[in-house]
Amino acid sequence: MITKRQVLLVATEKVINFMVRFEAIARINSISQCEEVWRNNKTPCCMKKQIEGNLPSYAIEVKKFGERNVEEFITFCHENGFECGEFKTGHVYDTSKERCILCELANLKGMLASLASYNEMVDKEVDCIIYESRNFYVTSELGAIKPGYLMIVPKEHILSVAQFSKGYMTEYTQVCLDVESILKGTYGMEKSVVFFEHGSGPTGKSSHKKSIVHAHTHVVVDFKLDKKYLEMVQMHPIEDISVARDVHYFSYQEGSDGRLMIAMNPEVYVQRQFPRQVMAEEMGLAPGQYNWRNVEFTENVKAQLYRLYEFLKKGEVSPRIKERTRAFVEGYERREDFPQEWE
């Protein structure tokens, strides 16, 4: 969830040792350190004896909880209006040894078929490839929380945009321009289009077993992160994203030619699926619905694919876009589940 309250957790040494194993909880030695921890989008904790006088009004005493109460503690935090982050198990997962679903899509899921035939026959509509260039493809967002939500993915297993070569970056910039043009043409030229990415570090190792450690830029129409959210994770402008090639980061850009911003301070907590959580909150969705692993939003995928198809088939697009989306138009309209119309 997005933290709404700045609180101080007060507990015994044993409980504190449990709480600091959560990503967004930090131990302090003095109450004067609270402001710094809050600025880092985390929640401070300390022992009661470290506070002089009465407990401040924002303090919450935590009296139970241990390693067997992880889910119960997460619920406690959410009920009190703040995010604790995920529990750090201490395990490190080597994602190079795990299945990569984005590599599978790049290889057309092993189908020995043309891209048009793949788009016709692939089981799930969400796996249709809408746009393909030499080194990139564009597909629907996994769990499109709203229509007009796509992903730009390199075909090669590169871990983040910051690790792209100069040649890749030139092509990537071109793809971003094309995707923005497609979304604006489909949903309205006046609509905003934003690009964001959770960039992985250089090793492919992660503390999250289910992380997708393959570069993928999220592109969404009619959405922006307000200033308060940019400040929440200490976003700042950056000229060259390659300076972040060796760290985990969150990048954000309004428009393909807009100012690129980044959060890369390791002391700052950035929620997993951060923009999706903001979207879900603004849309009034139930807790947990932001998570693409929990909710597929199949109807949104269906609606956006049909609208994209209509625009690409009938709209005025550049020769480059027409060529790079031809296989989608040809294959999608031959699908058995192709809608005859969409209201």
Question: Could you name the key traits of this structure?
Answer:
eight-stranded antiparallel β-sheet; 16% strand; HIT family, subunit A; alpha+beta; four-stranded parallel β-sheet; 10 helices; 343 residues
Short note summarizing the structure:
By secondary structure, this protein is an alpha+beta fold.
Give an overview of the whole structure:
The chain is of the alpha+beta class and 343 residues long. The chain has 2 domains: 72 residues, no CATH class; 238 residues, HIT family, subunit A. It contains 10 helices and 14 strands. Helix 5 crosses helix 10 and helix 6 crosses helix 9.
SSE topology:
Layout: E1 8-10, H1 13-19, E2 25-27, H2 34-39, E3 43-46, E4 59-61, H3 70-79, E5 93-94, H4 101-106, H5 115-121, E6 129-132, E7 136-140, E8 149-154, H6 166-187, E9 193-199, E10 205-206, E11 217-221, H7 227-232, E12 236-237, E13 249-254, E14 260-263, H8 274-283, H9 298-314, H10 319-332
Parallel strand pairs: 1-3, 1-4, 2-3
Antiparallel strand pairs: 5-10, 6-7, 7-8, 8-11, 9-11, 9-13, 12-14, 13-14
